[in-house]
Amino acid sequence: MSCLHKRPKRTNSQEQAFQEQVKKVAQENGKRLGLEGDADLQFLLNGGELIKIRSTSWKKNRFFKLQEDCKTMWHESRKIFKKNQTFSIDDIDSVRMGRQSEGLNKHTDTSVEEQCFSIIFKARKKNLDLMAPSREEAKRWVSGLNKIINNLHNLSRQQKSEHWIINCMRKADKNEDNKMTLKELKHFLRQINIEVDDTYAADIFKRCDKSNSGSLEGSEIKHFYDLLTHREEIDVIYGKYAETEGQMSTRDLLNFLLNEQREQASFEDALKLIEKYEMDGTAKEKKHMTKDGFLMFLVQEEGSIFNPAHKHVYQDMSQPLNHYYISSSHNTYLMEDQLKGPSSTEAYIKVLMKSCRCVELDCWDGANGEPVIYHGYTLTSKVLFRDVIKAIKDFAFKTSDYPVILSLENHCSVDQQKLMAHHLISMLGDALVTKPLGNTMPTNFPSPEELKGKFLIKGKRLNKLDAVFTNSNTIEEDTVSEEDEAADCKENGQKAKSKKSKIKLAKELSDIVIYCKSVHFNGFEHAKDNQAFYEMSSFKESKAFNLAETSATAFMHHNMDKLSRIYPAGSRTDSSNYNPVPMWNVGCQIVALNFQTPSKEMYLNQGRFLPNGFCGYILKPEFQRSLSSQFDPNTLTRGPWLKRKIFHVMPSSYQKSTRTSKNPLWTLWLESEIYGVPADNASKETHHINNNGFNPMWNQTFQFNIQVPELALVQFVVEDYDSTSQNDLIGQYCLPLTSVQNGYRHVPLLTKRGDVICSAGLFVHLMLLDAQ
């Protein structure tokens, strides 16, 4: 039973009929999800008692159940004004079996491990830590929720949109009689962000009310749905190519693929698409595609802007490690700002699950001899070093097999450093690289392929790496200079209490720094003459940007045989970010950003690492790897990097979304942007469309002249336009220009935190052509 609003009292027969209707609705939604008759789905629909855990002393019994829409969880609450609470399945990031959250680890005993599970939400919503009465019930909750999450994720955009619209219709049916009055129709239209005047609403209603009963039901609601979801732009495209009995023959579809989509397609390819997406049996027998089949094909991955061949690892992963951009996090332990925000193991889990491959550990002496991680000399909370290492071990390779770099900022005493080394070695085991690969002193980095499933430690080292092979590795401890980032923080006055510029380094910790030895940067010539390949420098953003502007080619050559790490200025106390693109333009690999802060810079980072299986490693362009290259992104001297292109973008339409803006109705506005070398940076904007957040159409054409396509990112941003204040973000999507597919394409939209908005997207026409 839905618990979203109060209902009038029913007689026993009315209640029985209502419950039958609820059951029928749940069955329909289960079928739509591909879970018809599924025992785990039925278990969730029946619901059950779970123990909600917030602390060692706060553990309360609460009833949970899945609502009949099969995408909303309801649970009871003892709050006076919020007795019934719900959350959407779409808001769940993951469901973890066992005591795999910070809260459950802290507040429950190991004896109940198999009864526990956690619901992890997207954005900053707190985890829901739960305990079932038995191991079997916990497994069924986890299995059922994961089935729904996976099946919702695997629905096509068209199916997700239908699911959303149908459920909006049900919510508009206030008296739950499966009919829609004119008043309910107007309420529904406002729910899906369409503003119409009373005359137009009455006209739609009259056209659908064939029975003249004053309400829509059955086939009349279906007629209304068809009118609502009709897509004029699809009619035009389909009509142009459907030249066989009013439908697309296999040859017609092939012509569309060749002429509009610019694909290297064959007759057999077109036939496979008909077999895969055409739902009409008669048309399929004729090897034809109807308009519905054509729309179904366009909203699948074959019709996506993102090249499906790039969804998997497709690049050469056998190059040296420094030949790749590496997805990297700064102050990884923080959930919020760096003055008073909480530190948490959950922060590490979140970035690792986003395929971040370099995480930062800011280590300090803790109580009881145990090192802790936090932002020193601030009010940020502390988390145990050993808990962080356990979380990293458990989640490092869930979404990517490629190596993870642990960047240590070490402020600990020698004794606690020894304990850090012990935790790293004992907990990470054989996955920790403790000596160079092979039996001889290396002259270059191993590849990501060779380092699959491995951890690398970045930090200070007491001696050269060749000491491993010459038996001269006998120094027990010695002083080394502080990490550059720690010293820079002092300059900003954040660590005025600390007066040391050098620290004592324990041999045990020094010995496990193999391929990422931290050294101070003293200029490119000095680095070329004196630094070994495994000695790397960290650059604060202002210094890095200055070098990228004044010595771009030298910076790029430096990165051809060494690693560089860039980090945000210490003055960014709000954990804001810098633009990573100029750093990638000169070949910097570890461009560390504050993942905890949603921002345009993080959208670009997500776009950069979207291809290649979202594995956290992107092979740099050849001209950033060849020593003979004289590439300078600022001057663009002639060379193989100049592959001038013209990129045509025609934003056609936007489809459907739930309302998240502060305004009751949306005035939509679209911006298309290019980020790359300075000459390629550009932005184009559509006109804004008032009071239609459901299906506005623009049909404007933009042209971008691209000089270096291999470094260019394209971003689409949809906003709720406001002439008097800052626009509200509706959704955005970013990807490398080299991963864009030509032709008519659907563009998914992501929230500010990078999660897919299931019921929204853009339809665009794209063409990337060689410049004349």
TrEMBL record:
Entry binding sites for Ca(2+) 4: 691
Pfam families named in the record: C2, EF-hand_like, PH_12, PI-PLC-X, PI-PLC-Y
Keywords of the record: Calcium, Cytoplasm, Glycoprotein, Hydrolase, Lipid degradation, Lipid metabolism, Metal-binding, Phosphoprotein, Repeat, Transducer
Chief site of localization: other
Gene (name only): PLCD1
CDD domains, per database record: C2_PLC_like, EFh_PI-PLCdelta1, PH_PLC_delta, PI-PLCc_delta
UniProt xrefs under SMART domains: C2 (SM00239), EFh (SM00054), PH (SM00233), PLCXc (SM00148), PLCYc (SM00149)
Chain sites annotated for binding Ca(2+) 5: 720-722
Gene Ontology terms: cellular component: cleavage furrow; cytoplasm
EC annotation from Swiss-Prot or TrEMBL: 3.1.4.11
Cofactor(s) required for function per UniProt: Ca(2+)
Residue ranges constituting the C2 domain according to the UniProt record: 625-751
SUPFAM superfamilies: C2 domain (Calcium/lipid-binding domain, CaLB), EF-hand, PH domain-like, PLC-like phosphodiesterases
Amino-acid positions noted as binding substrate in the UniProt annotation, renumbered to this chain: 52-79, 458, 460, 538, 565
Catalytic residue positions: 330, 375
InterPro entries tied to this protein: C2_dom (IPR000008), C2_domain_sf (IPR035892), EF-hand-dom_pair (IPR011992), EF_Hand_1_Ca_BS (IPR018247), EF_hand_dom (IPR002048), PH-like_dom_sf (IPR011993), PH_domain (IPR001849), PI-PLC_fam (IPR001192)
Catalysed reaction equations from the record: a 1,2-diacyl-sn-glycero-3-phospho-(1D-myo-inositol-4,5-bisphosphate) + H2O = 1D-myo-inositol 1,4,5-trisphosphate + a 1,2-diacyl-sn-glycerol + H(+)
Cofactor info, note text: Binds 3 Ca(2+) ions per subunit. Two of the Ca(2+) ions are bound to the C2 domain.
Molecular function as annotated in GO: calcium ion binding; phosphatidylinositol-4,5-bisphosphate phospholipase C activity
Protein name: Phosphoinositide phospholipase C
Annotated glycosylation sites: 211
Subcellular localization, as worded in the UniProt entry: Cleavage furrow; Cytoplasm
Domain spans labelled PH: 43-150
